[in-house]
Protein 1
Amino acid sequence: KAGVTQTPRYLIKTRGQQVTLSCSPISGHRSVSWYQQTPGQGLQFLFEYFSETQRNKGNFPGRFSGRQFSNSRSEMNVSTLELGDSALYLCASSTRTSGGGSGELFFGEGSRLTVL
Amino acid sequence: GESVGLHLPTLSVQEGDNSIINCAYSNSASDYFIWYKQESGKGPQFIIDIRSNMDKRQGQRVTVLLNKTVKHLSLQIAATQPGDSAVYFCAEKLSGNTPLVFGKGTRLSVIA
């Protein structure tokens, strides 16, 4: 079974630009979560999607947005990039159901964004 | 609010020794805890999890201990190997539709 796939793996942008990152979850997983990872802050929760609906959102400004498609693939977008947005963006899928629940997250390799 | 922290940011151990990585959590209502391992250039990988109705769980060479009285979680790795060198994260979760909240991580270095 293929794992979580994130594209692109690396990208460089300049301040003020916007970026879209893509995530394909493990087949059959309907829950997709996004995390931002930086050396100083560790893994910070961005949002979680289930059945095309955002059901959790972390403490990030509105420049960070996401969506999920009917095939469970997800994208996140960051507009008006700032230097501090440089980070590894991790996507994770899980077998969580509509009621939430526990269970491990399966992470992708991440998309490393550098903002110059 | 929720917060998960780690006692030590770095840990160096001799190959073959046992490793203990500690984690403190602040929310006594958390009912699920999980440890992840992240190697350089890779995404976090599941190691072991434990629910709040347990105080110990064992896997292959790993044991997680949960002390709800002091809100403390630990990961024990037996006979540490060079391949165990990585950053280890603990995470906690409340019940229901809530996200996993991660600690900042501990870097484990295994000295051959």
Protein 2
Amino acid sequence: EVQLVESGGGLVQSGGSLRLSCAASGFTFSSYVMHWVRQAPGKGLEYVSAISTNGDRTYYANSVKDRFTISRDNSKNTLYLQMGSLRAEDMAMYYCARYSGTYRGVDYWGQGTLVTVSS
Amino acid sequence: DIQMTQSPSTLSASVGDRVTITCRASQSISRWLAWYQQKPGKAPKLLIYKASSLESGVPSRFSGSGSGTEFTLTISSLQPDDFATYYCQHYDSSPYTFGQGTKLEIK
């Protein structure tokens, strides 16, 4: 069974940093592109970042570019999102998601981890 | 970036109704479109991929159609469990943007 379990969320002050983790199981993690998607309270889904299977290619939304860093450790089946210079508008539920390729798109999501930014 | 526009934003319907949600892309995305259902406090769940392919385990009352720039999600006969928010997402080229969502409410 495919499982994605996020952790690392919490309360952080504006300007602070936080590292999110996503532990993957039930599939060959190193074979899949992985995404981070966030959802601010009461709002829609926002595509945040993505990373290739071996980590050599990454994508960032303009809203997080130069502040967030996506990475992965295939030996640990874990995806990361290092978040810095956090702002009030970064407050959201952060989901990791598995991208199954051009045929199926994003097919599995974790349950999310909540990031709260206080001023 | 490709923009995705969903309509309507809110839809009120009754159990047994047939409903359709539309998603338009700002440029052609072939058939690289997925539909998700999200319930409060839960992660999105894949319903439809490649515009019209039904994800395993999803009831057959859900169907998707379209190609290019215009796509639809149809629920043939609404059930109580279907009241949720629905999102489209393209995966033609990065960034894989989402529509703004359609909240399906009980009339």
